[in-house]
Amino acid sequence: MGTARVCAEVSKSLTVSTSCTDTINGYHEFKISGYSLAKGVGIGKYVASETFMVGGYSWAIYFYPDGKSPEDNSAYVSLFIALASEGADVRALFELTLVDQSGNNKHKVHSHFGRALESGPYTLKYRGSMWGYKRFFRRTGLESSDYLKDNSLLVRCRVGVVKSHTEGPRSYNIPVPVSDLGQQLGNLLECGKGCDVTFKVGEETFPAHKLVLATRSPVFRAQLFGPLGDRNTQCINIEDMESPIFKVLLHFIYWDELPDMQELMGTDSKSGSTLVAQHLLAAADCYALERLKAICESKLCEGIAINTVATTLALAEQHHCFQLKAVCLKFVALPANLKAVMQTDGFDYLKKSCPTLLTELLEYVARLSEHSVVASGQQKEIFADGCDVNGRRVKQRLH
């Protein structure tokens, strides 16, 4: 009887925890075009992929057309995966695949995944640490293989960053509700309680709260509480904005999200949505609402079209939306689009309002024309500044 009691007490006091180790996996595909032009770049010289994120770290693929080691005398190509961000003792599994482009799926694969490793995962100790193969493939065999197609190679990379954590017992679980601050502020606007300023936009009026406006917009803060502002202001006239746009702007300030645009504007047409986004972007820039401005840029980028792109391009230039501007220039410069865009009213507006953009557009057209000539010869040109014809900078991190 005494023994049974002791065992029961031990059982009640026992707690359990578990150490869990797993990998966070990510993938990247790297196409190496113009392989024949890359040859002869020199032993130890490489072409690099864009960096990509896996497990909280940046990675990049490095391909050495003439090999990495002088002793191989350019007989092999070398292929490596490298840690491209700061890190100490990053443990990871790797897989490098040279894709068979004939469709026969006879890929060349070097992988840590799916097999036991005697010394465990590979460890990278600092930025620039690499895993891969100096003698990944003999060049003579590669150049007569199905891995090379249209003078291009295709490499797929898999990275599995090893992460560990300990799970202990959880006797209680108290759910935490999601934040509803936007809901509360939105209700404050809708009920109208405590409003101390009114905006007059055309024939409509919009009551609001000075403190909320000042918190969300530095422009409103300066206007309402700045040294040149009038704290006793109770009514403000808005003369350069239509009332539906101001209503959306005010909704965003309180809710931190856009309302149902179809219901608000009474249309679900693509051109109507683009027009609203254009006006709203200008309003967001006027009141320094950077998140709203970014949302408008994204929507305009998604809805880019022949009949609206010129107006959007002018707007991007006027309001310093550099990413949106680049997308519009690239779209307009395409031979399939250029002529049609030039026949729109928006292009006439572009010429009058932003004449300097025409020079940039001509540069894009010239660059695309040059690229098409080069591409027709199965070549890929790299300029002296380290960028290719698409403007992508070749990363030069390791030697």
From TrEMBL:
It comes from the Eukaryota. InterPro entries: BACK_BPM_SPOP (IPR056423), BPM1-6 (IPR045005), BPM_C (IPR034090), BTB/POZ_dom (IPR000210), MATH/TRAF_dom (IPR002083), SKP1/BTB/POZ_sf (IPR011333), TRAF-like (IPR008974). It holds the Pfam family BACK_BPM_SPOP. SUPFAM superfamilies: POZ domain, TRAF domain-like. Pathway: Protein modification; protein ubiquitination. Residues 195-262 form the BTB domain. The keyword Translocase does not apply. Keywords: Ubl conjugation pathway. One of its GO terms (biological process) is cellular response to salt stress. The keyword Ubl conjugation does not apply. Residues 25-159 form the MATH domain. May act as a substrate-specific adapter of an E3 ubiquitin-protein ligase complex (CUL3-RBX1-BTB) which mediates the ubiquitination and subsequent proteasomal degradation of target proteins. Belongs to the Tdpoz family. This is BTB domain-containing protein. It comes from Arabis alpina. The lineage of its organism: Eukaryota, Viridiplantae, Streptophyta, Embryophyta, Tracheophyta.
